[in-house]
UniProtKB/TrEMBL annotation:
Gene Ontology MF terms in the entry: (3S)-3-hydroxyacyl-CoA dehydrogenase (NAD+) activity
The keyword Oxidoreductase belongs to this UniProt entry's keyword annotation: yes
Pathway the protein contributes to: Lipid metabolism; butanoate metabolism
Organism of this sequence: Streptomyces carpinensis
Pfam family, one: 3HCDH_N
Domain 3-hydroxyacyl-CoA dehydrogenase NAD binding: 4-181
Protein name: 3-hydroxyacyl-CoA dehydrogenase
Length: 313
């Protein structure tokens, strides 16, 4: 397997090193600060030991042996297929790091930024010709060795081959890429998380419920379902007749809730039709009962584990 560079030895850099090394890649972790590299080395060992205890890494010593730490950026990026940039959330730092790394990385190396919200077009602005073709955002769930979703966010300059090469590397490392179009700030992960968090703050402000009570709704309610199925599949399975029936019955109430918060994003017939078409491609209505039964069986199977976790938390 081709080597991978991780530029930045913070927590997310260490997490990516685990992801790639666990999959068999040689990983070079770069950071300009010796104390950061020393801390990262200890964190790597600690995380691998934890994963081993839970059976998520078979041989932590073998995984650790694939990871090297260096202050030499040229050494880190030599011959790599991908540079996972993990610099702080500042455009100037990311641009400078990518610009310097590109001087010694192969011409076909992909540069993936771990940015949580910075659009890739901002990162590529004013970079040398040809370099923006190879840059995209690769935003992970945190930590990626436990939360496998990763968002691929290309700019309008990103070449198709770069997106597909990044997708292949991430998939081979056990991650589950989604493609984010149009570069919305926050992408998909943080926009969904932000929507829930904004409403949670409003509910606390309005005295509707306490912080812990709202967390309980997510812990024991929404979160349990969402660990198996997402919001579209949840309402699709909650309503006989599926998504179309749910939108007809509940759409007006959700519109009123949105208007209460100053939001005007109606579920138009065209929008509902698009969502329904995509859901029915994934799950024809004649398999609805079967999928509902699957959902319930998975919830039953996981309930003892969840309750055991709650009892010891």
């Amino acid at each position: 397997m081709e080597p991978v560079a991780v530029a930045g030895a913070g927590s997310i850099g260490v997490a990516f090193a685990i992801v790639f090394a666990r999959a068999g890649h040689a990983v070079r972790v770069w950071d300009p600060f010796p104390d950061a590299l020393e801390r990262a080395h200890g964190e790597l060992s600690d995380r691998l030991d934890q994963l081993s205890v839970h059976g998520l890494v078979e041989n932590p010593n073998a995984v650790s042996a694939r990871v090297t730490f260096t202050r030499d950026l040229a050494e880190a990026v030599a011959g790599v297929a991908l540079v996972q940039e993990c610099a702080p959330e500042r455009v100037d730092l990311k641009q400078d790091l990518i610009r310097r790394a590109a001087q010694n990385a192969p011409d076909r190396a992909v540069f993936a930024s771990s940015s949580s919200a910075i659009r890739p077009s901002l990162i590529t602005a004013d970079l040398p010709e040809g370099l923006p073709d190879r840059i995209l955002v690769g935003h992970p769930g945190n930590p990626p060795y436990l939360i496998p979703v990763i968002e691929l966010v290309p700019s309008s300059n990103t070449a198709t081959w770069a997106v597909e090469r990044a997708r292949a590397i991430y998939t081979g490392a056990g991650l589950r890429p989604i493609t984010v179009n149009h570069e919305p700030e926050g992408f998909v992960f943080n926009r969904l998380q932000g929507a829930v968090l904004r409403e949670a703050y409003c509910l606390v402000r309005d005295g509707v419920a306490t912080v812990d009570e709202i967390d309980e709704v997510v812990r024991s309610g929404l979160g349990r379902r969402w660990s198996l199925i997402g919001p579209f599949e949840t309402v699709d399975l909650n309503t006989r007749g599926g998504l179309e029936s749910h939108a007809e019955k509940m759409g007006p109430a959700y519109a009123r809730m949105g208007a209460e918060r100053g939001q005007d994003d109606p579920w138009t017939p065209e929008l509902v039709s698009t969502a329904v078409r995509q859901r029915r491609t994934l799950l024809p209505l004649d398999r609805w009962e079967e999928r509902v039964r699957w959902r319930d069986e998975q919830l039953m199977r996981l309930t003892p584990l969840w309750e055991d976790i709650r009892a010891t938390s």
